[in-house]
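Troubleshooting entry. Yesterday's outputs looked truncated, so today I'm pasting the complete records for two proteins to confirm everything comes through intact. If either block looks cut off, that's the bug. Protein one:
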Amino acid sequence: MSRYSNDSEEMSEESTGRSRNHHIFQRLGVEEDESTEGEESDTNSYTSEDESDDDATFSSKDMLECNFCYKSLRFVVFECINGHILCTSCCSKTNSCVICEPRTQHSHVKVACDYEPYGCKEVVNYTQIYEHVNSCHFSPCLCPQINCSFQANTTALGEHFMINHPLRIPPFKYDQIFFTFVRVKDDVTILQGISDGELFVITCKTQYIYKMLSLYHIGPSRRKPEYVFEMLVLPHEKYSNCILQLKSEVVNVDDRIYPSSSAIYVSYDYFKDGLLSIKVRISKIGANP
């Protein structure tokens, strides 16, 4: 008997809540459909006068939904001093909370970065979180070593690589030409900067009767290129007068999937005993040589 009574009480509370919301919608002078479906169209209806210096902070944007219309929050959001989270659509009809006290003011909600587990300590306005995430230096990257599942920001990834994966090529210095080699049977050759531990990969893909060489930086793929490189394929006796050269920006890769990029096409005849000798120079964009 008590079970049915509890169910009835819960249904009664839910009905009461809906009825209360209906009366609040009437007080705002809008239809319920307009208030719950017009979130995107009303995103620009607030003014800078609505902003407050007291900002609420949350650990994740995924936990935020409007306490009034229950929609996921995608745009400007506000919180009253009693903890009610409201979307712009519900908040823009009035300068006060539509759930509790009429004169309660709202403040812009702040959230932690998605990459907080990887070291980012930034707490930013909810409306700016996507812009921040797209440029965050703590965005995790997958280790370029085949069969390794380690993920971390580029600094921690460089430290991981030095400890767990011996380099075949000695670490290089930026803005200086260094010699390296590529094995015809290897899909990737991994390089590492000596000053900052940043990782780079020379890919060697088969393309018809050629080997296609490209260079990538292990870093967040959504960020703009931060490096440029020059690559010079050294000829041997048979092709002493034919030098292959390439200069381009270094594309960022964070998941061992290497997209199409600038490349040198090298004939198998350039490989001597399965090895191809090359000169490489990697420089930071905007850095003084």
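Protein two, checking that the full record survives here as well:
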Amino acid sequence: MNTDCWLLVTADGWGGAFRIARALPGRLTAVVIGPRLLAEQVAAAGPDEVRWTDPGPVPAEAWGAALAGAAADAQPGVVLSTTDPAARVLLGAVAGRMHARLVPAAVALAVEDDRLLVRRAAVGGETIETLRCTGPVAVTYGGDDVAAASGAAAPVTPVELAAAPLAVIASEPLAVASGLEDADRVVSFGRGVRARDDVSLVQGLAAALGAELACSMPIADDLGWLDKSRYVGRSGNQISPALYLAVGIGGAPQHMEGVRGARVVAAVNNDPEARIFRTADYGIVGDLYDVVPELTKAVRNLPSKELEQ
């Protein structure tokens, strides 16, 4: 199959996607829609070519149709986007135009027997699946961001593309109503909580600790048990509490990226091999339905001075 790859870059945080794209044997073209400095940084990592479009004040998404046309003409076998939302929009436009197979959350790419192998995160990051497919394939990156290694600098070629009529007419910060951003303590839960009625168990522990309640993305996005303003992770809240207590959370990289700044991470999980125990400072292996009530009781019995420390 054709293993030439286009990597779509619209913002910082492209190193991980670049790494897996570079593993393919074909020609790597980085398509950068962003400032010149971004294009030069990508070029320094050593792709074969950088095609650069300066969007100015126009959102990168405005170039979706034009970029899709350029990709249809060039016919790369693989098109890969970073995790940036604008890059993913561009990937969707390209995939539709090229009738490409769309694969999300890739963490590695390889070629075997003239077919593309895509390793991707599944089940909230607890499982890695390997998919085998033929091109063209459109892939979103789903791994950790890493610093790109330096390579032989590639030339940066300015490319004129026609933008759709799209403009930002207002920009205002959203108030953080959840209280997570400034919380000193956060108790968060994931799919280890089996039913919506059981959320009260974790709420009781949070109340005893004087902590804010949070959750993993599937709890808010898929199940709707908490408001989306309360989920923690790469695309949600990124917080720095003194204590982050994760209950029934596996510890997928996308989630743990949201608590990089936490001073202490503690976890309750019934799986001793859960990924979160690699990061946690303290951990309890056990059924949360047994552990959480006992923790709540122990916290409530603490003298107030000890709890305040």
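Both blocks look complete. Sanity check on protein two: The chain has a mean pLDDT of 91.
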